[in-house]
Amino acid sequence: MPVLRLFLFFLSAGLAVAQPLVLTTNTILDDLVRRVGDSDVRVLCLIEPGVDPHAYEPKPADIRLMAKADIVVVNGLGLETWLGKLIANSGFHGVLVTASEGLSPLPAATDEATSANRRPDPHAWQDVRNVIRYVDNIRAALVKQSPEHAADFNARAAAFTRELEALQAYAVAQFATLPEAHRKLVTSHDALGYLARGYGLTIVPISGLSPDQEPDARQLARIITFIRRQHVPAVFIESTSNPKIPELIAREAGVAVAPSLYTDSLAAPGSPEASYPGMFRHNVDTIVRALR
Question: pTM of the predicted model, to two decimals?
């Protein structure tokens, strides 16, 4: 009997060490997976905080990580244009989880194609209600991968969902304080369409879905005219975008440059904006203060 107990002890210890390796493709997903998986999974993010996921170029080390991964959690909706090649080069045979699965995508507002053929806007996390769906998709994937931890995954996901529901109520209440005429945002790129749809705002992006899509002179002039005529009080810069053009527009229009918004990446570890709830609350507070 003591031998059997010793065997079971080492067996359970071995199972505890063999955590599934979960890779994520941006810092926002990384935070969500860590909140649901906690110590029952090993989580690594391919992208560092502050790096633009649109223009990310995988490194050789990413190929090795992908080959070892049990689960890869992606945003989907066309965000990770570089992912297919990475999967092919790595020989990845794990489970690919699309966090945005089940959502109704928003067409990109600035796409030149017709409305019927527009690319989807991938920035679905800019509406908290979408992130609640992300969390449930992540929870289901982790439960399927490690059913022995299902109760813990489910409990953490439920607690996190309650936190997100409170964040949603906070955002609705804060944006409701803005008069209708003050709900216009000029931003670095087209990353806030879901925020606009979800909370009753109008977004005027300087560039397209990717921050490297720079506007021409005619577009710049149109934005400057819009700011002056609509009495927009500030231009918003995003943490992963080059501030040069937004600063130029603000200077020409004679308005302020608002503090940076976090749209495509969380802040560095240790910052209040290093978590999804912290990032979203920061954006809400920054927008409301600048536009009020």
Answer: 0.87
